[in-house]
Write a structure and sequence with these properties.
Length: 322
């Protein structure tokens, strides 16, 4: 699998990275329902076998659990196969598992130390501010992250879910290596100004939810939707999983299936490749909860849609707006 340089860093990353949100499991505000840690570890090992060379997690995923699972999966992995590990800060939780927002310098320093312990590493390859919240503290938060870099706790510093204006604001305190925004054919708002800003300022772009939280994989039916666990965040908090958009999206998946069939590509691979067609997109984050899922998606890394295939998707979206 070919690699691409991530922004202004010395990291050469594969076009796909393993997303560790879902393996945080259930029991928290944005959980994905029950999850078997053995399946999570096997999925990470499969990702390495497929050639992916980076994992993206966050402290808040499973309230620390995702980072712990990543550490277990990488224990004993030979140095030559060991992936880069990216994680995030600015989300904290209390003893009652209520999640709070903090960009205060002392909080970020504590969060970094906690992530280092959970991940069982001496340095984090890419440390990202998860959300620009509260917005009045983004300068303080970014300065704290830069100090962690100077102290050797992290190698590179990035942000997630920031606007172009917010990136311009904090860049006075130090360079931004990467941005992690949501991007899929169902969520395209970053095309207007965020992607051009990143391209102009050599900021790598790691897009998340390229398959819209699994919706564009081709594995969904109305029956599966109705059987979602009560603690799966998609049931109530993702409008693309609500009617009438859910039925519209199932029809879109059939378009992706038709496009992919002659190329022996799954709907999920078509959806991921669609995001990677953008020159400003460095790589896409692809989640998996059990072995066998990633092997159906890695074909997106080095394959691109034709102009006619892109037009077919565009036409459907124009005729069926969300």
């Amino acid at each position: 699998m070919q690699t691409r340089k991530l922004g202004n860093s010395d990291l050469n990353i594969t076009p796909l990275g393993f997303g560790a949100w879902a393996i945080g499991g259930g029991g928290w505000a944005f959980g994905w329902g029950p999850q078997d840690d053995a399946d999570s570890i096997a999925a990470i090992h499969e990702a390495l076998d497929c050639g992916l060379n980076w994992i993206d997690t966050a402290a808040v995923y499973g309230l620390g659990h995702s980072e712990e699972v990543v550490a277990k999966a990488l224990a004993g992995v030979a140095a030559a196969r060991r992936p880069y590990v990216f994680t995030k800060c600015a989300r904290v939780w209390d003893e009652s598992r209520q999640i709070g927002k903090s960009l205060k310098a002392d909080s970020i320093r504590r969060e970094c130390e906690a992530s280092l312990r959970r991940l069982k590493v001496d340095v984090i390859d890419l440390y990202q501010i998860h959300w620009p919240e509260p917005p009045e503290d983004i300068d303080e938060g970014w300065q704290a992250v830069q100090q962690l870099k100077q102290a050797g706790k992290i190698r590179w510093a990035g942000v997630s879910n920031f606007s172009a204006a917010q990136m311009a604001q904090i860049s006075a305190h130090g360079p931004i290596t990467s941005l992690q925004p949501p991007y899929s054919m169902l969520r395209r708002d970053i095309e207007a100004d965020i992607l051009p800003y990143c391209a102009q300022h050599n900021i790598g772009t790691l897009v998340y939810s390229p398959m819209q939280s699994g919706l564009l994989t081709g594995a969904w039916t109305k029956e599966r939707h109705d059987a979602l666990p009560a603690d799966d965040w998609r049931r109530e908090k993702n409008k693309q999983f609500q009617e009438p958009l859910f039925s519209r999206n199932l029809r879109l998946v059939e378009i992706l299936r038709t496009i992919g069939r002659p190329h022996q590509k799954s709907p999920g691979e078509v959806a991921i490749a669609w995001t990677l067609r953008q020159p400003a997109v460095t790589a896409a984050i692809v989640g998996a909860r059990k072995p066998g899922q990633l092997s159906q998606l890695t074909g997106a890394a080095d394959w691109r849609l034709s102009g006619d295939e892109e037009k077919l998707i565009e036409q459907f979206l124009i005729e069926n707006p969300g």
